[in-house]
Amino acid sequence: MKIFYFLLIFNSLIISSFAQIQSLDDKYFTANLFFEKGNFAEAKTLFLEIYEKQKNNDVLKKIALSEYFLNHFENAIQEFEKLEKFDKSFSTIYLSKCYAKLNRPEKAFIYLKHHLQSKNKWSEAQIKLDSDFETLKNSQSWKEIWLNDWYTREEIKLAEAEFYIKIDKKEQALETLDEILNDNINADKALFLRGKLLFEFEDYKNAYLDAKKASEIDKFNEQYLILLIKTSNKLKKYKFSLENCENLLKINRFNLNYYRLRAETHAYLGNFQSALTDIDLCLKYDSDNEDLFFQQIKYQISLGETWNALKAINQLIAKNPKPDYLLERGKLFLQTNNWNAAKTDFSQVIDYMPNMAEAYYQLALISLKENDKKNACFFLKKAQKLGFSEAAEVLEKNCTE
After folding, report:
1. For residue 305, what is the DSSP state?
2. Which has the closest alpha carbon to 92: 74, 80, 101?
């Protein structure tokens, strides 16, 4: 009997502990989402509750930043001071900004100097253009602080490249990044920035090589891993991408965007149930996100859940009849042999977006089923002209004189 009661109490403790963890996880996901959407008061409240249970520097950062964005500078200072010994670069720039906003220049300059002596400091331009420092910019101390050589040649060049990117001079940015990497092949920030630019230029192979090397240098940098995953997916290295999605979630398992990225990678591998599980998790906390909802519908379709998908997409279109949604519903109607409803949706898509090639192609397929060769050929020619590659073969088969 004693053993029975012991086991009962032990099980109760485990269940209670599990419920608490679940509750903390829910709070963490929700707080991060609030923060991402700029709801800093709600985010701060939840992060404070989490911090009471689990002392965590990442949570403390979010509390400090929430106070800062809410213009609660005195409170923010208290939080940033706690972080100073863990992350000098991050804490000192924000301490300087807070003191500048409170019109306490002596303290602002002390922390600005500490920041300029740190490893991961902001660029000179980034600091000089920051509006928080407006009250300091006409002072003698401001002029004097910039007489020192705070930056290495590499840091100056990196800031130059970032400026070129900002003003959309990407070729010049690439040239500058190449200069940095010629001098230092292990400059991970330069590798990352060059990788991002090469990705934009659709040079996925070289973008992948830069992202891979940057990630090998700094294994815990989330931005490097995200770029590596995206480039890997472009090169169809899906299993490698999935491994890095898992690495990303080990670093930060409370960022919903990372689950969405993993869902996309699962889908490339045909793991639609796993993809759907990740999207369902995202929708649990971000239920009003239309893009997530549409992604969920696509995975339902891939799993053959046609009627569930149709029901869901009807709800989505009732709120927002976007052409992409109508196109997808039209294709669902085709799967249920509801040709007239499909034809209506594809026609609406063209009304909204006259250059939507796939809508013409789908109308052509319906016309062929209805033995309306004239309209079918018209729609196929239109789809081909707009660059829909699948139209060419069907056109050749059905529309040659």
Report:
1. -
2. 80
CA atoms of 399 and 213, how far apart (whole Å): 51
155-170 confidence digits (pLDDT tens): 999 999 999 999 999 9
Nearest to 237 by CA among 257, 217, 211, 216: 211
Domains and CATH numbers, the chain: 152-237 (1.25.40.10), 305-401 (1.25.40.10)
Confirm if 230 and 203 have CB atoms less than 8 A apart. no
Q: Quickly list DSSP for 83-124.
A: HTTT-HHHHHHHHHHHHHHTT-HHHHHHHHHHHHTSTTPPPH
- Contacting residues for 303 by C-beta, under 8 A, at least 6 apart: 272, 273, 276
pLDDT value for 401? 62
Helix (H, G, I), strand (E, B) or coil at 325: helix
pLDDT tens by residue, 93-126: 999 999 999 999 999 999 999 999 998 999 999 9
Closest alpha carbon to 117 in 91, 150, 164: 150
The pLDDT tens digits of the residues spanning 26-85 come to: 999 999 999 999 999 999 999 999 999 988 899 999 999 999 999 999 999 999 999 998
Q: Let me know: does 58 contact 90? Beta carbons within 8 Å.
A: no
Is the predicted pLDDT of residue 12 greater than 50, yes or no? Answer: no
**Residue 7 reports pLDDT greater than 80:** no
Which residue has 């088969």 as its token pair? 397
Eight-class DSSP state of 186: T
Which residue's structure tokens are 């404070």?
Answer: 48
| SS percent in the chain: helix, strand, coil, step 5 | 80, 0, 20
pLDDT of the residue at 17: 40
> 159 in helix, strand or coil?
helix
